[in-house]
Amino acid sequence: MISATPDTLEAIEFDVEEHVATITLDRPDALNAIDARMANELAWAWQTVRDTDDIHVVVVRAAGDRAFCTGVDVKGDGSWFFRSNIWNTFDPGTVVAPKIVHRCWKPVVTAVHGYAAGGAQYLLNESDIIICSEDAAFFDPHANASIVSALEPIGMLHRGIPLGEVLRWALMGTEERISADTALRIGLVSEVVSREELWPRAHAIASSIAARNPKAIQGTIRAIWESLDMTRSAALQNGMAYTHIGNPPLAERRAAPRRNGPAYYR
Predict the structure, then answer these.
(1) CB count, 10 Å around CB of 166?
(2) pLDDT mean across residues, the chain
(3) What is the pLDDT of residues 90-135, one digit of tens each?
(4) Which CATH architecture has domain 12-211?
(5) Residue 4 phi, psi (nearest 5)
(6) In this structure, what is the dihedral angle of CA atoms 226, 230, 234, 236, given to the nearest 10 degrees?
(7) pTM to 2 decimals?
(8) How many whole angstroms separate alpha carbon 1 and alpha carbon 39?
(9) Per-residue model confidence as pLDDT tens digits over 197-250
């Protein structure tokens, strides 16, 4: 795989302003499909976000009019994860998404427009808040190409998407498209807005979160996500430990100013 630095980014754009990092998928001519360069640049971005204390929140969005992301670029060189030795092949989602490998516990707000197909779920499955525009369409092309669809739907189930909806998505190929309204109903997204409102709304959400104590927010994110792999009792014990680790003393909390912005009702 290639090396990524801020000066050599080609497949994504990466900007930071007022504690919010914006990652823009930037291969619109390829419908923002993930090739080796984009995968490596996303890995660099998550590591940079994780290790930069001045970054509190991330917004993920995509350039172009037609698609948020259409998964792994099957027309390009897939050797970056399909190795000749099958035992060395790995889940590409662990490279392009923030949490499982990169251990990035900063909130991720993802704004989806147009097509979100197949491997786009790698990004969605590890996002904390997902919103979409009215033209969003979520579908899985694996079945059309006689390819097993396993990793992405497993991630959807882990997020709590109903089993029947996941099976329809995975088994019916491009003929079954989850609309924005259905995505809202099944909990795949938490809000649907117009295309013009999509990016401003994502950044408004991110800015609101960024104004909070970043250590408290990261502890909250980590406790919630780690609980998904634990029994309830283990998760509660882990969560209690994080409250002791991450919460300042009571007197300090009482003295700190509260950050209450205008209420927004969905």
Answers:
(1) 21
(2) 90
(3) 777 788 999 999 999 999 999 999 999 999 999 999 999 999 999 9
(4) Alpha-Beta Complex (3.90)
(5) -115, 140
(6) 50
(7) 0.91
(8) 9
(9) 999 999 999 999 999 999 999 999 999 999 999 999 999 999 999 998 888 776
Inter-axis angle of helices 163-171 and 151-159, to 10 degrees? Answer: 160
Q: What percent of the chain has pLDDT over 70?
A: 89
Give me the residue spans of the domains in the chain: 12-211, 214-255
pLDDT of 138 over the 60 cut: yes
Structure tokens that stand for 211 in this block: 């104004």
> What are 52's two structure tokens?
């930069």
What distance in Å separates the CA atoms of residue 110 and residue 49, rounded to the nearest whole number? 15
